[in-house]
Each structure stands twice: as C-alpha cells, then as structure tokens.
Amino acid sequence: MSKAQAISTDLFFAVAVFMVLVGGIIFIWDFYSLRLSEDSEYNEMLVISFQATDLLAKKMLGEDRNLSTAKVGSFFNQSYDEVRGELNIRNYDFYISLEGGANSSGLAASKGKKSSNSENVISLRRYTTYQNENSVLSFELWK
Amino acid sequence: MKKSQASVEFLIATGFILVIFIFLLWFIAERNDDLKKTGQYLDEKNLCLKLSNNINGALVNGDGARIDMPISYKIQVSNRSLYVGPDNVACSFIAGNASNTTHSIFSLAVGNIRVKNQNDAIIIKNV
User: Is the ipTM of this complex over 0.85?
Assistant: First the structure.
C-alpha cells in the first residue's frame, strides 16, 4: 500500500466516525427539544388544573367552609362549553366530579368527559365539605 | 511516490478538513442560536405562568389581596390571556375580570407590577 492511499483511508474513516457522531448529536438534540416542549405543555396543564380547582372551590363555597348546595347545583347545571369557557380551558377537555355529601356516599355531581387513553392527563383531587359531610372534588384535565 | 503527488493529496485532504470545520462551525452556531431562543422562550413562559398564578392567587385570596412582582419583559394582557415578551409567549388565567381599572386589554411595562383584588375584580398595574 502506498503512503497516499493510507492517508485517504484514514481520512475517510475519520470522516465517517465524525458523521456518525454529528448524526447522534442531532438526534439527541431533537429528542430533548421534543421532551422540553412536552414538559412545557404538561406544566401549563398543571398550572391550569391548580387554578381551576382553586376557582371551583371558591365559586361553590357557601358558609363555614361548606360547599353550597345551590351553587353546586347551578355550576353542574351549566353546559360543557359554558364551563369550559368559564374556566378558560378551550384547548383542553375536562371532567369534574364531586363525591360525598349528605344524601350519597358516591357521586354527588359530575360534568365533562373522562379521558380515554390520553397521554396528557392531569388529575387533581381536593378534599372539601359538602352538606356537612367530607367530600372530594376531582378535576381531570386532558388533551 | 513523486513529490508532486503527495502535495495534491495533501491539498485535497486539507480542503476536505476545511469543509468539515466550516460545517462544524455552522452547526455549533445554529445550535447556539437555538439554545438562546429556547432560553428566552422558557424565561417568558415562566414569567407568564408566574403572573397567571399570581392573578389566580389574588382572586382566590379574596378582596384586599395584593401581590407585587417584578417583570423583566413587556406583557400584554388581553381579556383572559397574557402575551409575554418579543416572542408573545402566551398563557391564560381563569379570573374573569382583570383590568388596569379602565381597560381589559392593556400593556404592562418592564419593572414592578401590583396584582390586586378589589371587590373580586382583579386590578393589575405598574407601580
């Protein structure tokens, strides 16, 4: 083998290794960019969920830290789109339920659509008092 | 091997390496730019979510609640949406009636702002 051939072979081998490395870097970069945008959306959904449950508890609050039966009734009587507009969550779907209360140990009221096989789901539960009994207000936000 | 042959080989190799280095330089510059843009986007998004949370906090804490915070980007408040910085990074808040006492669409300049709950109406102003 002449000297010139040896140099070319070395060079092409080095270039091939370099290209593989650059390809790897591009792949990892894109992978983390995608993960970052997914995380960003998840965090935003989390903030919206916390805000929505805060607001729901405040809106339905009656006297002495008890959820008002009238306010609960009027809130859950609204249409899906009205609640969505009120909570300003037009890009997402939701499911709200209130469990407990004096007359039932199960579901007292619910509104919305439950998620089915959705990857982005935030589920929050808040312990409250409804009709002087312990109850749970659940909120599920999904896309 | 002739002396002239070695020289041509050397020139080709040098040219090739130069092309690779130029590509590498372009690649690094491009990624660096991406990184800066992503950093700024995250800063703006962070500020947007902070303000959104503070607006909600003022609403939930009831009449008289007051929250002061610094902002490092200009913010446009439009009904129940916030647009932050030169990239207009958006997020929303739930409180129904935020205003600067006169308008529900207004801008906040860089500096300190105050989010206040006044009779369950949210007032946001530069201070």
Answer: no
